[in-house]
Design a protein that fits this description.
two-stranded antiparallel ribbon; about 5% strand; Cytochrome p450; about 50% helix; single chain; 4-stranded mixed beta sheet; globular; alpha+beta
Length: about 525
């Protein structure tokens, strides 16, 4: 009797193991289609570890605007059309507005990062509400003086040392958001805070790239691998220590200013003063400010770097932009933000930069809190959703010659599309995400993008570098981008020259006039 029972139990266990082996990694018929799977792994063995957006775009051409990848029994849905974004992320936002579990990210951030927290976390709602209150249109209009002044300094820095354009762009974006959030600007590149910030932000972005780290959330046992054998744990510790030191230091400087009664309206001053009523502890306050600093710095600097690349690589677009700028603004004054309404080709350049090389080609992943439906398929509860903006922006069915930087497409059609394309689901804010996870900093970012695009085109010629040996222009590689969650061009040869002595004189004069604007943001406390 005992031997029969034991044999039955053994057979049952073996059957269960075989069933698991047979079914784990398989795609259910109700899920969106996708690449063939293998037992246990599903598609984990073919998930790209670098430049994932390129491979995921290739699959979208094979499997349609929604397809799925199996990572073990976990489901990853990739959406690659405006219609899918509108239906899944916007209309069904209440069930697709979550974030997937991200243990590695939680190790780095302590689980309190505005962009990565679960939407059912009360702290996320608290931080989101505070962030949105700071980024309304009226509030962003209050920030315009410092944005204008920083943009003038950006032009002046290029005048002085055009070879450091990427660093100047980083200083500009960091200084603007740091001024708005903390009331502390970065007056030059020598400050250690900028070096430290972009060092850990670069590590963090590369660390966040899909496929870059092991699937800890799908294979939880990996969490217990000793640190000496787990590179991701060692990297996470480094990034966490750097982030905490930076954000707590900034928060402490704000606290000291508040304590001595020297507040002048910076966002974190209000948070520090009202921390009891907001319910935020010190860690939440540091994370809120830091998250805003990250979100406001990297994407805009990426835009500015790509703008330069596009104008160098496609001089015909630059010529048209110069002609429009000279006709509307002229050489006797700097552009003003209100000029943008009379500059349709400049607006087209902005849209084309954002389409041609989106800073976050896969955005930040969403997750489903319940089963979602699209196109007759089920995206199950707990699935990860990637918004493949690269695939949408480079869809030959939507855009004529999508690899070419051609702003004229937005002169011909509002959304830059081919004739006859249904644009009912299109929106210009796609680059800022979707649903309740859409970036709260849209208004501030758009102001920076518009001000600087006008200024740079008004002030400078963007030229190819001349080879000293051949005396011929050096072509630039428009595909040489960083490998990270947020991408930007790698260094490339470029010759930037001010368009005339009159332009240079106006920039110098405007910088002198900006001194009073800068003064209140130049916090001298250590």
């Amino acid at each position: 009797m005992i031997s029969t029972t034991a044999a039955f139990a053994f057979s049952w266990v073996c059957g269960l193991v075989l069933y698991k082996l047979f079914t784990t990694g398989r795609r259910k018929k109700t899920y969106p289609p996708g690449p063939p799977t293998v037992s246990i792994l599903g598609n984990a063995h073919i998930f790209p570890k670098k430049r994932a957006h390129i491979r995921l775009t290739e699959w979208s051409r094979m499997y349609g605007d929604i397809y799925s990848l199996m990572i073990g029994n976990g489901v990853v849905a990739v959406i690659s059309s405006y219609a899918a974004v509108k239906e899944l992320l916007d209309k069904q936002s209440s069930i697709t507005g979550d974030r997937p579990n991200f243990h590695i990210g939680d190790v780095v951030t302590g689980g309190v990062h505005l962009a990565q927290m679960q939407s059912n976390d009360p702290n996320w709602s608290l931080m989101r509400k505070a962030a949105r209150s700071m980024m309304t249109v009226p509030k962003c209009n209050e920030h315009l003086p410092i944005q204008r002044a920083e943009a003038i300094q950006f032009m002046h820095e290029i005048l002085e040392n055009p070879a450091l354009y990427p660093k100047h762009a980083e200083r500009y974006t960091y200084s603007v958001i740091s001024s708005v959030v903390y009331g502390i600007r970065a007056p030059n590149l020598k400050g250690q805070e900028i070096t430290d910030f972009y060092h850990f932000l670069d590590l963090w972005n590369r660390y966040n790239e899909p496929g870059r780290h092991p699937p800890v959330d799908l294979i939880p046992i990996l969490k217990y691998v000793p640190m000496r054998w787990a590179l991701w744990k060692r990297e996470a510790k480094v990034v966490r220590n750097l982030r905490q030191a930076h954000y707590y230091s900034l928060l402490d400087r704000v606290q000291k200013r508040v304590d001595r009664g020297a507040s002048f309206g910076a966002f974190m001053e209000q948070i520090v003063q009202d921390y009891e009523s907001t319910g935020m502890d010190r860690e939440l306050m540091a994370s809120l400010g830091g998250g805003l600093l990250e979100g406001g710095s990297d994407t805009t600097s990426s835009y500015l770097k790509t703008l330069r690349l596009a104008l160098v690589a496609f001089p015909e677009a630059q010529h048209k932009a110069h002609e429009e700028m000279d006709r509307v603004v002229g050489p006797d004054r700097l552009p003003e933000l209100q000029d943008i309404e009379n500059l349709p080709y400049i607006r087209a350049i902005i849209k084309e930069v954002q389409r041609w090389r989106p800073p976050a080609p896969l955005s930040l992943p969403h997750a489903t809190s319940q089963d979602a439906h699209y196109g007759g398929y089920v995206v199950p509860r707990g699935a990860t959703i990637f918004l493949n903006m690269w695939a949408i922006a480079h869809d030959d069915n939507l855009y004529e010659n999508p690899e070419k930087f051609w702003p004229d497409r937005y002169i011909k059609a509002e959304f830059g599309t081919r004739d006859g394309v249904d644009v009912s689901a299109f929106r210009h804010t796609l680059g800022f995400g979707g649903g309740k996870r859409i970036c709260p900093g849209i208004n501030l970012a758009n102001n920076s993008i518009q001000i600087n695009t006008m200024n740079l085109i008004w002030a400078f010629d963007f030229l190819k570098m001349i080879d000293s040996a051949t005396k011929r222009p050096i072509d630039v590689d428009v595909n040489n981008y960083t490998e990270a969650l947020l991408i930007s061009p790698n260094p490339f040869p470029c010759d930037m020259k001010v368009r005339s002595p009159q332009h240079a004189e106006l920039i110098n004069q405007a910088l002198q006039e900006s001194a009073s604007t800068f003064q209140q943001f130049e916090d001298i406390l250590p």
